[in-house]
Specification:
The chain is an alpha/beta fold. The chain has 13 helices and five strands. It has helices at residues 11-14, 34-41, 45-59, 71-84, 88-94, 99-114, 117-120, 129-140, 200-205, 208-214, 245-270, 281-300, 324-338; strands at residues 145-155, 174-181, 187-195, 221-223, 234-235. It starts with 10 loop residues before the first helix and ends with a helix.
């Protein structure tokens, strides 16, 4: 990335058509050692092959004219962009192709992975609900939990339309992404469509999952931070816990809910492109969804974790009034579980 700062603004957004002369043969990336593959692509050879088998029908080039890319090259180019977060022309240079070619590869793979969103991201998970609750209960004794929820901001460049909507409370342009996970760091729900100025609580309130939970369609509780109002199915900590049961409740709540902070940390560590997406909001949302699908594939297949970068909690500073019936449920759990 040395000497590249002045050329970074036109990356995916514009997809310039200039080419880099192909004076070197293209790399046979899958012949490299496993540690190299993980560093570059965040996956083992076996998992890259698995992902390629899934996506091949969606990303293969219809023509084989000239030096058309193979579907393996298209996939590896996109994986490298997701993993390293490097500017596109650097990614392109490493794979010996043009920036425009990398742009098209990333787009093609994003749209292909989007086809698998409902397959790999399912609430409350692929396991039986009882098993999901048991795994959460083993963390700190908190009962009936089927997911932990949080919002996380993915920085983007200032968009040309509705720019002010994307400015978050840290004065950064971003997409605010809702993440719900299980106890094994699998993401079971993602909402990646809201500008950075929108609060976590509104994103949840307007989600279809909120309606399903409110209507009792799914039996269980979500745990969230104080950025959400306490509701019968979304339990938040006591704002000012009294010594004894309320403090025990908050400790167990915090230990359990930390799974979502760790899950978000893993997602961003594995896919460093999410540190700052230099693309339009629409493209950013597609990249975020693609990374979530890949994250779940990595967890399910037992891929090694990258070095974890846990950021400061992004708790929404606006504390919303708790619902009366939410406080009743919280008090019941506190008394019956943590009051002994």
């Amino acid at each position: 990335m040395h000497g590249s700062v002045n050329h970074t603004t036109s990356v995916l957004k514009t997809c310039h058509t200039e080419t880099i002369p192909m004076v070197r043969p293209r790399l046979d990336v899958l012949s490299f050692p496993e540690d190299f593959l993980f560093e570059r692509y965040r996956f083992s050879l076996q998992s890259i092959t698995y992902i390629h088998t899934l996506l091949h029908p969606y990303i293969t080039n219809l023509t084989r004219r000239g030096r058309a890319l193979t579907s393996e090259q298209i996939l590896c180019m996109a994986l490298r962009f997701f993993a390293n977060g490097s500017f596109l022309y650097n990614t392109g240079d490493a794979e010996h192709v043009s920036k425009a070619t990398v742009c098209r590869a990333v787009r093609k793979v994003c749209l292909a992975l989007k086809q698998f969103l409902q397959v790999f991201v399912k609430f409350p998970g692929h396991k039986p609900v009882r098993a999901v609750k048991e795994e959460f209960h083993r963390i700190a004794g908190f009962p009936n939990v089927i997911g932990c929820i949080d919002g996380t901001h993915i920085p983007i460049i200032a968009p040309s339309q509705n720019e002010a909507d994307y400015v978050n409370r840290k004065s950064i342009h971003s997409i605010n992404v809702q993440i719900i996970c299980d106890a094994a760091h699998i993401i079971t729900n993602v909402e990646a469509k809201w500008p950075g100025s929108v609060h976590d609580s509104r994103i949840y309130r307007e989600s279809s999952l909120s309606n399903r939970m409110g209507q009792g369609e799914i039996d269980g509780l979500l745990l969230g931070d104080r950025g959400y109002p306490c509701q019968p199915t979304l339990i938040t900590p006591y704002p000012e816990p009294e010594p004894g049961p309320q403090q025990h409740f908050n400790v167990a709540h915090n230990r359990t809910r930390s799974r979502v902070e760790m899950t978000i940390g893993l997602l961003k560590s594995r896919f460093q492109c999410l540190r700052h997406l230099r693309v339009t909001p629409e493209r950013a949302c597609d990249i975020i969804v693609a990374c979530v699908v890949l994250h779940n594939i990595a967890i399910i297949r037992g891929e090694q974790h990258p070095a974890l970068q846990i950021q400061d909690p992004e708790e929404d500073l606006i504390h919303h009034g708790d619902f009366q019936d939410g406080r009743v449920v919280r008090d019941l759990i506190c008394r019956n579980v943590f009051g002994h």
